[in-house]
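Deliverable D4.2, example record:
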Amino acid sequence: MLRGLGVTMALPWMESLRVWGDEPRGGVKSSEAPVRLAVLFSGNGFHSREWWAKEGADGLELGQVLQPLSDFRRKMVFVRGLYNAEAQKGNIHSSQTGNLLSGAPLASGGEIRSGTSIDQLLAQRYGTSTRLPSLVLGCEKSNPSVHKNYSMLYSSHISWSSPTTPTPLEIYPALAFDRMFKDGAQKGDQSVLDAVLSEATDLRRQISSSDGQKLDEYLESVRDVERRIAQAGRRGELQGWRPTLEKPDMARPADGIPQDIGEHMRLMCDLLVLAFRTDTTRICTLKLNNDHSSLRFPNLGVDYMIHHLLSHSDTADWLKVNRFFLEQVAYIVRRLDAVQEGGRTALDNTMLLYCSSMMPGGHDATQLPVVLLGGGGGRIQGGRVLDYKEKPDRQMCRLYLSMMDKMEVRPGRFGDATEPLGEI
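Output generated by the structure prediction step:
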């Protein structure tokens, strides 16, 4: 840790420091980087004809939606045919999303009850080892309304701390940054890096030259995120919705969120990468938008229709929005893969799950779109397509049992599954 007045900042993995303790824990040597879990979600499914992958002579061939991930085909597992049986009961967005990461039955009729999600189950195991048990980020506000007898909170939250408690969602980059690095509840005026500069200078004398270069790169990446958050705050902009007035009829808060959806998502992606690089947390979910989303995408020239309505088509604009989401995933993957952690990269030490709660936007959840990226600490082989569509026991929760196994957590049963997927 680097410490300063009101600031505590964890360091990235370094070859010349034991940064994860002196004793091995959970089957992982203390000198090795830990395995991490990231779950990325975008609502409303994908273009029905362009979400596909197949194994070819030169590796995976990808449909147009997945093309942004083409550089990482060797570190990617495309999974087809998994589903959540409980999500079939309501057959609407909220009933298909609220149990996406748990497979639990959902309560309706005004009651809110789901199940503890995989990320929070793992956070309960690893949360005491890091500054934050988990980081739960989003780019669109929660919707508290009710749709066809189901709470829209189900559409707004994929992470659940308990069956009755959706994990609080942080959509403000500045507040997420403060949670990661600031000791107090309030945002201070002092730069995080300025506060720890003295300790960083002392540390540089104790580490190898390659670790010194890594430290400089890391500190600069923190500075870059801090600077971009400050610029967004000075503009006082809001994000993710269109105001009903051309001009505000009240003063905007000082710390806003970028109006440009691309800028907002990119900041959240950078915060996820920083959280893993600093071991601030080993568990992160990033909800790029809600299911039944009302986001628009003027940055793509697609400003005439909200995301939910656009999803009920297979137009070129729908494909463009799909690829925009995949570009965010690819950005995170690229950044993690550029970070060396001993003999592996941060991506090799991560399991990044990208999914939605339906295949196309027409509410078809009989199979779910699933992509798994990263090596899970060298435990997952990429470059494969796994097809369970015509197989029995194709519960999505079997995938979660497999992923938990890579982090030495074996509950025996999760949701509606008792056996992991042996191929993962």
